[in-house]
TrEMBL record, chain A:
One of its GO terms (molecular function) is L-cystine transmembrane transporter activity. It is found in: Cell membrane. It is a multi-pass membrane protein. This is Cystine transport system permease protein. SUPFAM superfamilies: MetI-like. InterPro entries: AA_ABC_transptr_permease_3TM, ArtM/GltK/GlnP/TcyL/YhdX-like, MetI-like, MetI-like_sf. Gene3D superfamilies: MetI-like. Pfam families: BPD_transp_1. The keyword Membrane applies.
TrEMBL record, chain B:
It is a peripheral membrane protein. Residues 2-240 form the ABC transporter domain. SMART domains: AAA. It is found in: Cell membrane. Coiled coil: none annotated. One of its GO terms (molecular function) is ATP binding. The keyword Nucleotide-binding applies. This is Cystine transport system ATP-binding protein. It comes from Ureibacillus thermosphaericus. Its EC number is 3.6.3.-. It holds the Pfam family ABC_tran. GO terms for cellular component: plasma membrane. The keyword Repressor does not apply.
Length: 238, 244
């Protein structure tokens, strides 16, 4: 029906082509100036938080373990959108006003940190105990063993689920539109509000999200290939 | 050179090592035999601090650790730097090539320059007959080759004593001899070695001293001719009759 109405009406077709060409650039700009930086920055900060949270949960004393567990529990147990609203709309009530983009950075980083910490924790715990023992037996300290022996192996285990988180994050950044970050989806809303072509404009936005995710899954494949070089492959079966 | 006094280790309520005394002179090869669960592996692991004894004294090459008091992490690391460990399942680092496995400790722990470390590593690989495989990953090697690399990795740290924890138990039978040969060469060069093994023929050939372990205590020890052919204790006789 929708497509039919487009192709049998040259005027409407022309109008849509005009909208497409005039909205594509602002949408792409939104993706490049906000969606991607927001994703990359928060994922990086989130990984650092996740790493130390995982270490605290595995090696920490009761106090550190408790803090880490509480953090993970609160973040995982509450909706991301609610967290963003608390930071952006809630904190000003107690005199802490943070502008939209930094609010998004804080909210998403804390969120990624909690989820990724579980991935990193599981990856570290998946490395056999004898690898630790071998590292200790040549005189390594615990931090040397983690850095040189355990993490390189754990990384390989963690890459697929972390890639999942990363791709999830790309799409989750659209929630930042609700705290006034002019990322891609907010621009799509603004454009659609002026021309009422909601289906068309949101589809263009969806397409750009898909292309970005597609590119990152190719990058993921390349990273995995590099990290798998030391794994035995027999007749294509891993 | 190695002096062990009153060594005791428990897991939870289970006493696995009970009050062990043993002296090991420099250059000697000590083979520990005994039924599974007798505590021989635990004993070996105590010698390099992979298990922390609950009590007793370990003295290796002038370093004395008294486990009746609190020992520091630094003391444990000093102990490990005097001992080399070879594990039953090789425990090579799978993400590193053969040569990288060997020089890892030299670079990270001893902080040697890479060129110097590689020189040492290549010399050791030549010794265990695997220089041609230096750029392979462990997954590309046979079990026997992996274990020879593991021996070279331990030797690279220049230990005063080499500890072997059932080094041939995980190997296919046809690969056992290549590992035993490397160990034999090592013994002939005068390396001090403590070996937990079930290879009785090897023990008889190479050991200066055989120690028979059962239920966490040393039942009997002495030269292989005595332990294997003229054991005094009933339990030793019984164990030997079961495996022959």
């Amino acid at each position: 029906m929708y497509l039919n109405s487009i192709f049998h009406n040259p005027e409407r077709l022309e109008r849509l082509i005009n909208i497409a060409s005039s909205s594509f650039v602002p949408l792409l700009e939104g993706a490049i100036t906000y969606t991607l930086p927001l994703t990359v920055i928060t994922f990086t900060i989130g990984l650092v938080i996740a790493f130390f949270t995982a270490l605290a949960r595995i090696f920490g004393n009761r106090f550190l373990r408790g803090i880490a567990q509480g953090y993970v529990s609160i973040i995982r147990g509450t909706p991301l959108l609610v967290q963003l609203f608390i930071i952006f709309y809630g904190l000003p009530t107690v005199g802490l006003t943070i502008s939209p983009f930094p609010s998004a950075i804080i909210g998403f980083s804390l969120n990624v940190g909690a989820y990724a910490s579980e991935i990193i924790r599981a990856a570290i715990l998946s490395i056999p105990k004898v690898q630790w023992e071998a590292a200790y037996s040549i005189g390594m300290t615990r931090s040397q063993a983690i850095r040189r022996i355990i993490l390189p192996q754990a990384t390989r285990v963690a890459i697929p689920p972390l890639s999942n988180s990363f791709i999830g994050l790309i799409k989750d950044t659209s929630l930042a539109s609700l705290i006034l970050v002019t990322e891609m989806f907010r621009r799509a809303q603004e454009i659609a509000a002026t021309n009422y072509e909601f289906l068309f404009v949101y589809s263009i936005a969806a397409f750009i999200y898909w292309v970005i995710c597609f590119i990152f899954s190719i990058i993921q494949g390349k990273i995995e290939g590099r990290l798998d070089r030391f794994v035995k492959t027999v007749g294509g079966v891993r | 050179m190695i002096k062990i006094r009153g060594l005791q280790k428990s897991f939870h309520d289970q006493e696995v090592i009970k009050n062990i005394d043993l002296d090991i002179s420099p250059g000697s090869v000590v083979v520990i035999i005994g039924p599974s669960g007798s505590g021989k592996s635990t004993f070996l692991r105590c010698l390099n601090g992979l298990e922390i004894p609950n009590n007793g004294i370990i003295e290796i090459d002038g370093l004395q650790l008294d486990f009746s008091k609190k020992v520091t992490q630094k003391q444990i690391i000093d102990l490990r730097r005097r001992t080399g460990m070879v594990f039953q399942n090789y425990a090579l680092f799978p993400h590193l090539t053969v040569i990288e496995n060997i020089i890892e400790g030299l670079i990270t722990v001893k902080k040697l320059p890479k060129i110097e470390a590689i020189k040492i590593g290549e010399k050791l690989l030549e010794k265990v007959g695997l220089l041609t495989h230096k750029d392979y990953y462990p997954s590309q090697l046979s079990g026997g080759q992996e274990q020879r690399v593991a021996i070279a990795r331990a030797l690279a740290m220049d230990p005063k004593v080499m500890l072997f924890d059932e080094p041939t138990s995980a190997l296919d039978p046809e690969l056992v001899n290549e590992v035993l040969k490397v160990m034999k060469d090592l013994a002939n060069e005068g390396m001090t070695m403590v070996i937990v093994t079930h290879e009785m023929k090897f023990a008889e050939e190479v050991a200066n001293e055989v120690v028979f372990f059962d239920e966490g205590v040393i039942i009997e020890h002495g030269p292989p001719s005595l332990i294997f052919h003229n054991p005094k204790k009933e339990r030793t006789k019984k164990f030997l009759s079961l495996i022959q």
